[in-house]
Amino acid sequence: MEDVWVYILSASSFLILLFLFKLQRSSKRNLPPAPPSLPIIGHLLLVKEPVQRTLQSLSDRYGPVFSLSFGSRPVVIVSSPSAAEECFTKNDVVLANRPCMLAGEIMLYSNTTISTAPYGPHWRNLRRLTTLEILAPHCLASSLTVRQEEVRLLVRSLYEVASSARDSGCARVEMRSRLQEMSFSIIMRMISGKRYFGAAADAGDAKVARQFREVINEIFELSGTDPGDFLPVLRKVVDLKGRERRMVDVAKRSDVILQGMIDELRSRRKRSDGDRKVESKMMIDYMLSEGYSDDIIKGHILTILCAGTDTSAVTIEWTMSLLLNHPNIMQKAQAELDDIVGRDCLVDEADIHKLPYLQNIINEALRLFPPAPLLVPHESAKDCMIGGFDVPRGTMILVNAWAIQRDPKVWDDPTSFKPERYEGLKEDHAYRLLPFGMGRRSCPGVGLANRVVGLTLAALIQCFEWERVSEEPVDLSEGTGMTMPKREPLEAMCKARECMIANVCARL
């Protein structure tokens, strides 16, 4: 019995000394300023939706670099271009880790995907695979036909709806589902070589596509802030709102669909070529030929679908909403297309770089409504400094791109939609405009996203006249979610341009 008390006293003394050591050490550090916090939960009650706006208001009060405590996890919020530049230049390697989250552990194959894996050999291999083999410029060039066909199908479906409208030839259309379907189809065809939507799709494939879209939507919903990530003791006591059980269920359903896709391609390879190596441009085929495990392939498919589908669709929806509220800018973009591309053929991907005003429109939409208002969290692998403040090892870093891109100290008239602001700029807005992140963990799909968004918007503007459904401006309220969707799906009045019907729309 005496031995037990000796152990207890020794352990207590050690913990007290450790606490005093940490207290003394932290008192010598120049930590970022922080609001008053509550015991145990820290600042969790301060973080309300929309999170990017809440963090911006705190930044206005405490400065461009400030700290919060999410339960047991220290967090530093970065809201200025200079501090962001520090994160992605001198601290790029130090901040290359991702914090380990419950969603990634359960739904993203134990955090082994390119978006969630810790910095190291496995992540570098996935990054090399993605940037040099799957989403490299030459690979994107080989999938050009896929993007062109899907954009043409979108334009044709809108033309059919508009031309079937009585009298005026002007139809009310809901755009969100159409844009999501198009983005999903582009990526699925690049991954597996099959269409999962539309008349050309098999009924079974269409069912799988609907199920997969539901799974992706649930993954986005469940990947938000989870109290269990910051208060681990809660996970042992209660599963808040059944969140962890839902994650497990979504992970199982997702895995069944993904494994089915891999098995189908694997059997197709065996039937067509026996043991001979198959040369294919499809992502699954390539990864199978390189010997990647099924779980790594499934995680990679899921990451690319999650990262690429909603982000492109959301960007196009926000841009169209802004253009509907600024018809003079829509007309100017249409005039540029008529002048550069003409009215006798549909815009092509090769034309996009010749359309600077369209690029300015896209940049301005990304500035006002970035698809990732808070960049994917980073984690410090060792002590570092940001903005003159000490940042301890193991701190989560959140870069508030939304706040930086709307900062009146950085942008003139920051809340207004002004594509002309980019005219004459020579890439000097690198750390003021961060829709795809920066540094080694920036989004590897930026090339694909730019192609899909640019080509789709150009085709929609070139082929149709667009009007609001009422005299009231389109509601630009933000919904909740990782990709900051519009609160209400975009609806607009769509009418084929007379000058485009005979030579373009009717021939699609």
What does it look like?
- The protein contains 19 helices and 9 strands.
- Residues 1-26 and 275-279 have low confidence and may be disordered.
- Helices cover 52% and strands 8% of the residues.
- Helix 7 (144-163) runs parallel beside helix 18 and helix 14 crosses helix 16 (356-368).
- It starts with a helix and ends in a 7-residue tail after the last helix.
- Strand 5 and strand 6 (389-391) form a beta hairpin.
- The longest helix is centred in the middle third of the chain and has 32 residues, at 294-325.
- The strands form 3 sheets. The chain has a 4-stranded mixed sheet, covered by helices on one side.
- It has one domain (52-507): Orthogonal Bundle (Cytochrome p450).
- By secondary structure, the chain is of the alpha+beta class.
- It is found in: Membrane.
- One of its GO terms (cellular component) is membrane.
- Heme binds at residue 443.
- Its cofactor is heme.
- Keywords: Heme, Iron, Membrane, Metal-binding, Monooxygenase, Oxidoreductase, Transmembrane, Transmembrane helix.
